[in-house]
């Protein structure tokens, strides 16, 4: 590295449990917020100005919160827990109980994926009761859209991402499975379009750049797999990157498509230039596995942050803005 790695600009403490999921909500004129989901069932809404929790929601009967996100606005929160429930929350009315829930029946660790299809509707993909099963429903109606089951025995579904392509009729879904396979699904046709074996181990996490049609996935080994989607909607493996230490919990691509962050089992957050997957920095602060990473969506690039949540019960926040936009 040409320059020493930075230190976090501040740390959020008080979650009292491992931090499995992070989600920023910094757009608009309101207070910048960071939502976190913890291993003891709490969802913290952190005020990034005061650096304190603005609200703590005790959800999912104390079971671990695996995933948090927002729908349409920051007041509509969605969370997924190990209690086999996906809960919908309306924060505008100050409620402490979910306004609705979807039962998944899944005992795995695969995080959901949500796609906003209109100002008032979304698609939710979640792991189903069968280990290889993915279910897609419309929200808020909870109308079933499809069930996706691969013909081959790929093992448990481990990770997924929904997106709407610029051309073509309906949404597509990328899913990573226990045998190391990646599968591209056409949600409308309920058909698998392409499959590649990206890893020898389960696909723990993936992220996909919908503009450049490039993706990357991680597992328990030392390789990040890189892949593209060609004009025939076929997955093509590319040169990946070898990590110093094995194990990646999560991957996150910055909104401008310039930086990629990885949450490492070796307690480090690694930052890469997305264009060439060039390692830029290894951020070292946490004393246990890093479980989650997220980039903020602030309109002012100078106020954009990278957040990392760890098994050590702390959230570190890093300023990685530069004038060039693609360096740390």
Automatic annotation (TrEMBL):
Keywords: Repeat, WD repeat
WD repeats: 283-320
Secretion signal, residue range per the UniProt entry: none
Alphabetical list of SUPFAM superfamilies matching this protein: WD40 repeat-like
PANTHER family referenced in this protein's UniProt entry, alphabetically: GUANINE NUCLEOTIDE-BINDING PROTEIN SUBUNIT BETA-LIKE PROTEIN 1, TRANSDUCIN BETA-LIKE 3
Protein name as annotated: Uncharacterized protein
Organism lineage string: Eukaryota, Metazoa, Chordata, Craniata, Vertebrata
